[in-house]
Design a protein that fits this description.
It is a single chain. Strand 17, helix 9 and strand 18 form a beta-alpha-beta unit. The protein is an alpha/beta fold and 387 residues long. It is 27% helix and 31% strand. The chain is built from ten helices and 20 strands. The radius of gyration is 22 Å and the shape is globular.
Length: 387
């Protein structure tokens, strides 16, 4: 007998509004018996049907709802859902490289699908989706007809689901390097070993926008594979791409060569120390770009992350020439926009610079966010003018 989940009184409001997560501590009772990862029906306290989703007793998120009618979770359902998600991207003009499925935002919780030319990179982040890799991959093949599908489920969030980190080939063959075109530039992507699914697609439009602010000398910090560096190099005289990973910097040099850029050089080291070194040397730049990894991945890390963001932004502000720009980002959901703005105001005050707010952007439109699920809104991209 399939599971029936009954919520505590009043707990259904957030879920009825469109949020998909049912937390274990919101449940009043569970009826029925089935295997872990099975499809479970969720009801309000008074018995009203809310939806169906995969259950996982090992997770704080007991159920992730994605069906709100009588549909079943068969291959046809996944095919229709993936087509719907992809049609939205095509409507926006995405073609060569983009996020084709963004989990909860596309009503496919815990499923990520990124398209890199003829190849797909996928993540299965819950027990339920992990158990259905085969039918999901069949649906992906029907929709995209890719040359290969590679799994990049080597992420720590799977541990919360009682799952190991895994990666490997799921369909066809995937090369060690895949060439994509973004903003008119060629990029070599390492789907198998690059960060996340190989590349950070969520900054595509933001990377293009830095061309407006990149003149003279540009310092790109936490540059990863050089997405910001290459776009800055289109309009800047010189770009220094800085990262702690020599592997990432090798990818920057490869991408610079692909596009025949001669004005990009790489610098390997800890960004915090490099910024302090430039301060000591009184070296300044026309534009500084900060795109660090998430400094906090849970709510209890926010205080330490705040100090880290503040430190790196103060030092960056101090090395921007008068009249130059600081472009600063955060990809942590827990560092909210309000908190990030507060940090920037404090950093500006302590830096002794006059700082003007120019513009703020968020994640690319192929990473849409649900108004009912604040977790889907995570990226902050600020442009600041330094006097």
């Amino acid at each position: 007998m399939a599971y029936s989940i009954y919520l505590k009184k009043g707990e259904e409001k957030r879920i009825v509004a469109g949020h998909s997560w049912v937390y274990a501590n919101e449940v009043s009772k569970i009826e029925g018996k089935d295997k872990n990862g099975a499809l479970a029906s969720v009801f309000s306290y008074d018995g009203r049907f809310i939806g169906k989703g995969y259950i996982n007793h090992a997770s704080k998120i007991l159920v992730r709802i994605f069906i709100r009618d009588n549909d079943s979770d068969d291959e046809e359902f996944y095919e229709k859902s993936i087509i719907s998600a992809n049609e939205y991207r095509k409507q926006l003009g995405y073609d060569n490289c983009y996020r084709a499925v963004f989990a909860e935002a596309d009503n496919l919780p815990a499923l990520i699908v990124d398209k890199y030319g003829d190849y797909l990179a996928v993540q299965f982040l819950s027990l339920g989706t992990d158990m259905r890799k085969e039918i999901i991959c069949k649906a992906l093949v029907k929709v995209f007809n890719p040359k290969g599908i590679y799994e990049r489920s080597d992420v720590s969030v799977r541990k919360k689901e009682g799952l190991p980190e895994v990666k490997g080939n799921l369909y066809g063959e995937v090369p060690d390097r895949c060439e994509i075109t973004e903003n008119g530039l060629k990029m070599s992507v390492d789907i198998k070993n690059g960060q996340k699914t190989g590349y950070f697609l969520d900054q595509k439009e933001n990377r293009f926008s830095v061309r407006r602010y990149s003149k003279g000398d540009v310092l790109d910090c936490f540059c990863n594979s050089g997405g910001f560096s290459l776009n800055a190099a289109v309009t800047a005289d010189k770009v220094i791409a800085c990262d702690i990973s020599e592997l990432a910097l090798a990818n920057v040099r490869e991408n610079a060569e692909l596009n025949k850029f001669k004005n990009i050089e790489t610098l390997c080291g800890d960004v915090f120390e490099i910024l302090r070194s430039f301060r000591r040397e009184k070296r300044q730049f026309d534009t500084v770009i900060l795109d660090p990894p998430a400094f906090c991945k849970s709510a209890n890390e926010v205080k330490d992350a705040y100090r880290g963001y503040k430190d790196v932004n103060i030092n960056a502000m101090k090395i921007v020439k008068s009249g130059g720009f600081l472009i600063t980002c955060s990809c942590s959901h827990y560092m909210t926009t309000t908190l990030f703005e507060k940090m920037l105001m404090e950093a500006a005050k302590e830096s002794g610079r006059t700082v003007r707010y120019v513009e703020m952007k968020t994640q690319a439109p192929d990473h849409p966010s649900l108004l009912s699920a604040e977790e889907t809104q995570y990226l902050k991209f600020f442009v600041l003018h330094i006097k």
